[in-house]
């Protein structure tokens, strides 16, 4: 009757795949807009508006320049989606079982909020390294053009901390 049993490994895997598709693909699709937004935040004198930012980027880097940071965006937000959608269901069932059926129903809104916050905690840990690399690629000219260039350079300069400096702001967001 159902494609899989609620709470089964297949159920969690399907939720995770849904997260990969919904977060990874959508965030990757808007990389050009995100790139210009990040550059406007870092250098508002050079990137005065969205349209000016697109124009400056295309003039300096070509149309392909608008795709800078696509790989860490896809990987990072796919990992975030996997954790967000998959762990939400894990925590929802876990917390529901801890409360008992009647209390889980009575406190369902709080249960859903707690499950969501718990899932987001881990999802942001999964996202942070790729988000850090993406921001370096997009906003520091000459630093790195690809994920393969950025990751070893960041690690050599700052160690593992380079990838997690932004996790607290992600949690606060």
From TrEMBL:
Pull one GO CC term from this UniProt entry.
mitochondrial inner membrane
Question: May I ask which residue range the UniProt record assigns to the signal sequence?
Answer: none
| Gene3D superfamilies in alphabetical order | Mitochondrial carrier domain
Q: Is the Secreted keyword given for this protein? A: no
Topology relative to the lipid bilayer, per the entry, is:
Multi-pass membrane protein
Gene Ontology biological-process annotations = mitochondrial phosphate ion transmembrane transport
* Keywords assigned by UniProt, alphabetized: Membrane, Mitochondrion, Mitochondrion inner membrane, Repeat, Transmembrane, Transmembrane helix, Transport
* Compartments, as annotated in UniProt: Mitochondrion inner membrane
Which reactions does this protein catalyse? Answer: phosphate(in) + H(+)(in) = phosphate(out) + H(+)(out)
Q: Where are the Solcar repeats?
A: 10-94, 107-173
Identify one Pfam family in the record: Mito_carr
Any one Gene Ontology MF annotation carried by this entry is: phosphate transmembrane transporter activity
Main localization category: mitochondrion
From what superkingdom does this record's organism come?
Eukaryota
Q: What does this protein do?
A: Inorganic ion transporter that transports phosphate or copper ions across the mitochondrial inner membrane into the matrix compartment. Mediates proton-coupled symport of phosphate ions necessary for mitochondrial oxidative phosphorylation of ADP to ATP. Transports copper ions probably in the form of anionic copper(I) complexes to maintain mitochondrial matrix copper pool and to supply copper for cytochrome C oxidase complex assembly. May also play a role in regulation of the mitochondrial permeability transition pore (mPTP).
Please state which protein family the record places this protein in.
Belongs to the mitochondrial carrier (TC 2.A.29) family.
Describe its partners and assembly state: Interacts with PPIF; the interaction is impaired by CsA.
Q: What is this protein called in UniProt?
A: Solute carrier family 25 member 3
Which lineage do the record's taxonomy fields give for this organism?
Eukaryota, Metazoa, Chordata, Craniata, Vertebrata
Gene name, Swiss-Prot/TrEMBL: Slc25a3
């Amino acid at each position: 009757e159902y494609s899989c049993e609620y709470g089964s490994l297949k159920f969690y895997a399907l939720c995770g795949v849904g997260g990969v598709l919904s977060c990874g693909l959508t965030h990757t699709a808007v990389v050009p807009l995100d790139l210009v937004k990040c550059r406007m935040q870092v250098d508002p004198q050079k990137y005065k508006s969205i349209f000016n930012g697109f124009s400056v980027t295309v003039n300096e880097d070509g149309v392909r320049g608008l795709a800078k940071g696509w790989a860490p965006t896809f990987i990072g937000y796919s990992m975030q989606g996997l954790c967000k959608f998959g762990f939400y269901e894990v925590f929802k069932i876990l917390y529901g079982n801890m409360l008992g059926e009647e209390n889980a129903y009575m406190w369902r809104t709080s249960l859903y909020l707690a499950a969501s916050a718990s899932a987001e905690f881990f999802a942001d840990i999964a996202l942070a390294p790729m988000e850090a690399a993406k921001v370096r690629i997009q906003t520091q000219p000459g630093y790195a053009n690809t994920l393969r260039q950025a990751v070893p350079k960041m690690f050599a300069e700052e160690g593992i901390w380079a990838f997690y400096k932004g996790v607290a702001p992600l949690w606060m967001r």
